[in-house]
Amino acid sequence: xxxxxxxxxxxxxxxxxxxxxxxxxxxxxxxxxxxxxxxxxxxxxxxxxxxxxxxxxxxxxxxxxxxxxxxxxxxxxxxxxxxxxxxxxxxxxxxxxxxxxxxxxxxxxxxxxxxxxxxxxxxxxxxxxxxxxxxxxxxxxxxxxxxxxxxxxxxxxxxxxxxxxxxxxxxxxxxxxxxxxxxxxxxxxxxxxxxxxxxxxxxxxxxxxxxxxxxxxxxxxxxxxxxxxxxxxxxxxxxxxxxxxxxx
Length: 248
What we know:
Layout: H1 12-18, H2 24-33, E1 39-43, H3 49-54, E2 60-65, H4 68-72, E3 80-84, E4 97-103, H5 111-121, E5 122-133, H6 142-153, H7 162-166, E6 177-179, E7 185-190, H8 192-199, H9 203-212, H10 217-228, E8 235-247
Parallel strand pairs: 1-2, 1-4, 2-3, 4-5
Antiparallel strand pairs: 5-8, 6-8, 7-8
Helix pairs in contact: 6-10
């Protein structure tokens, strides 16, 4: 646990409430790649978004996170067993897992140790899936302002591992027999205050506040508001997902 980089416990409640959900089609496709649907391990579950998506497709889901605070705020489900454990030491039995998932978190891991752990717990021909999403794209001129905020305003406050997200995990070592997934995307319809809630969960925003003693979000909202119009108007927003999926 000594190597665990905890960027989210201080914002666990906001993270649980305001992060977008992954598409149901993703979990159906992943379950379909598995020979059996007995047990899925959702590693670095955070507030449990992926674990809840897996629950309809597996008889049991074990969802682990190194952060006790994240687990405390995770959404409960009768088929999901939440446990505090690092990615590199799950506590699961050898050859017991049909699917290992990691949503928006693999860039924080000691990857060689995690890969060894995934290979240990997976059944023969079991599936491992790492995925994430980068910056959303806003409509029209608002996207230029969000891009500037992302790269310049809070850019210096992203941890170095964020570069792996910007690279869509292409440079990650992935020692599994790779499977090409179909395209998936997170799609939402949000009003401007809901967008603000989501942006408040960015680790770079939290680090900016701590370093600068002020909140960078009100200035961004003031820039977005004229183009958005009525702040309660909902707009369709999307994050394309990137995935690395493989078989043991």
